Amino acid sequence: MENTNALREENKMGVMPVNKLLVSMSLPMMISMLVQALYNIVDSIFVARINENALTAVSMAFPLQTLMIALGTGMGVGVNAVLSKALGEKNYGKADKAAENGVFLSILNFLVFLLIGLFLAEPFYLSQTKDAEIVALGKQYLTIVCCCSFGMYGQFIFERLLQSTGRTFYTMVTQGTGAVINIILDPIFIFGYFGMPRMGVAGAAVATVIGQIIAAIMAFVINQKKNSDIHLNFKCFRPDGRMIGQIYAVGVPSIIMQSIGSVMTYGMNKILIEFTSTAVAVFGVYFKLQSFIFMPVFGLNNGMVPIIAYNYGAGEKGRLIKTLKLSIGYAVGIMAIGFVIFQVIPKQLLALFDASDTMLAIGVPALRIISVSFLLAGFCIVTGSLFQALGNGVYSMLVSIARQLVVLLPAAYLLSLTGQVNAVWWAFPIAELMSVTMTVIFLVRINKKIICHI
Predict the structure, then answer these.
(1) For the chain, what is the domain count?
(2) Per-residue pLDDT tens for 338-374?
(3) Residue 319 burial class via C-beta count within 10 angstroms: exposed 0-12, middle 13-18, buried 19 and up
(4) Which uninterrupted H or E stretch holds 219?
(5) Phi/psi-derived region of residue 342, left when phi > 0, alpha when psi is between -120 and 50, beta in every other case
(6) What is the pTM of this model?
């Protein structure tokens, strides 16, 4: 082990100037996340060309897709924090063990959603709507996405291993390649170009999983060839309960947070369907559009978390605090730009999805009202990731529970009683105001408990 450790150079996360380090690690992730967001938007633009019911069906799949992503990213956050901290401590055996157990957990996640795709896709849709066309289209889409989720989970874990060791450029390459393949294949499979059969929403699902599988293969190969900080060896692998416990001690709050997002989306769909299915389609379109604003911030987070965790492990308080301040500044700036875009050109954004006059009447006020929450969200997102990187993800979880379940959904329901669908959207700024209040309180607490003592 000593010889192996000697070959591992000092990681750049401990020596490179902080702003340069943050930009160099985050920018590739932000670019790849923007490509992902572009894919999300283009995917729905093509589906909207089928008909509005197809767009509604794909929108209604979002809660379960959010749950899939929650399990993958939560596990990834845990692996990221444990592995980066181990590298900061020069404990390379622990870093390797974290990586190997992360791969094992990814396989378990896939098996869960394989079963869901086979047996629960139709009941999931029937719980939201009785429209036969929406249920049929949704079942086609969701079954394929769930049963082939091994690509998504493989992509999650192998890209996280690259992020955890500071090799975010490679994750930009793998994510970007998967998304571009997806965008290219979407119209081919959906509309039946180049001799392919016309598959409709099923074609969108097939394009998605092919892009994920190719990206996962690429990320695995790059880890084996280029990632000298981690050595994967599965010949004598046995699941390590203690390591899995450490991963999920950090990751479970993230899983719960995003799972709460799944519950929130499901609840909002139930509230909005009482007005019209068009309102559900608008909500789905909003989530696609807002991803173009939020994804760069998440990319910034993905670059920030390993820097925070590494310098926490190395005892470098000054670098940790500077990373946090810079990240908050960048995130708030990005969200402010998003707010301006949603305020100025909401009609043009909705027109991308073949919006009818009814959809525009609901959608234009929706985008303008919900985007008010952007002005506060950047600070909350970055600070929540700080909590996770320092091993206190429960704070992020509590903020998320309060925001989405205690405030947002009840507020949306009460506002729906006015009989005005446009009133429902005000639940988002109301919930974000509460979120920033709790986040500040927890930040003060974690500063006293941890940061001051580094």
Answers:
(1) 1
(2) 999 999 999 999 999 989 999 999 999 999 999 999 9
(3) buried
(4) helix 201-226
(5) alpha
(6) 0.80
